[in-house]
Design brief:
This protein has 217 residues and is of the alpha/beta class. The protein has eight helices and eight strands. Bound molecules: D-xylitol-5-phosphate and zinc ion (ZN). Zinc ion (ZN) binds next to strand 2.
């Protein structure tokens, strides 16, 4: 399995002090930052667009920006997010559908960004395994997407385990309810990329948390 990496989710940042929040992530040792884009349609919440991603990029010129598109029509915006500075763009399989998935992956790839596929907690990834060799990462939502600070859904664990046993080298990311209480469990299941929003930003020792989590194997 690839090394464990913690990705602070900027959804939990202080948006009145974005530069300060991002600075604290980097100072804690984060090299990757997770950005949540919500369109008010695919999920019942609205967050931010390319303009803010570009501002995040200016605050962290060297960080890997991992952009999670919770959007009904993600392909309409992938060029804009790439231009704004996205290094990886993750789209939801539920927004694409099986017949157009291969073309959608090609479309994201054509932007030059890494490509990720995200799965809601009730979506069985096995139906999508045939596309996994085409992407750079898969991401399991361990909460219903839309908000930070929700409780981890343990029913997703078999999906992580099944995916890891079939794809030993794939980057498997988890998003939602990950912190000191759940990180070791999902890493044991096979996840190697941990998106942490509220747990990271509320930790009294985020650098210690990051070091501990990235040492799990
Ligand atoms: C939820 C977002 C997550 C969110 C996770 O829809 O996709 O990235 O920031 O937040 P926590 O870690 O607080 O569950
Ligand atoms: Zn996310």
């Amino acid at each position: 399995m690839p090394p464990v990496k913690v990705l602070p989710s900027l959804l939990s940042a202080d948006f009145t002090d974005l530069r300060g929040s991002i600075g604290r992530c980097l100072a804690a040792g984060a090299t990757h930052l997770h950005v949540d884009v919500m369109d008010g349609h695919f999920v019942p919440n609205l967050t931010l667009g390319p303009f803010i991603v570009a501002a995040m990029r200016r605050c962290a010129p060297a960080a890997h920006l991992d952009v999670h598109l919770m959007m009904t029509d993600p392909l309409r915006y992938v060029d804009d997010f790439r231009k704004a500075g996205a290094d990886a763009i993750t789209i939801h399989v539920e927004a694409i559908g099986p017949r157009t998935m291969a073309a959608a992956i090609d479309r994201v790839r054509a932007t030059g960004a890494q490509v990720g596929l995200a799965f809601n907690p009730d979506t069985d990834p096995r139906l999508w395994f045939k596309h996994f060799s085409q992407v750079d990462l898969v991401m399991f939502m361990t909460v219903y997407p839309g908000f930070g600070g929700q409780a981890f859904i343990p029913e997703v664990r078999p999906f992580i385990q099944q995916t890891r046993s079939k794809f030993p080298d794939l980057a498997i990311q988890v998003d939602g309810g990950i912190g000191r209480d759940t990180a070791a469990t999902v890493v044991a299941d096979g996840a190697n990329r941990l998106v942490c929003g509220s747990a990271f930003f509320s930790d009294s020792d985020p650098a210690g948390f990051l070091r501990w989590a990235e040492g799990l194997q």
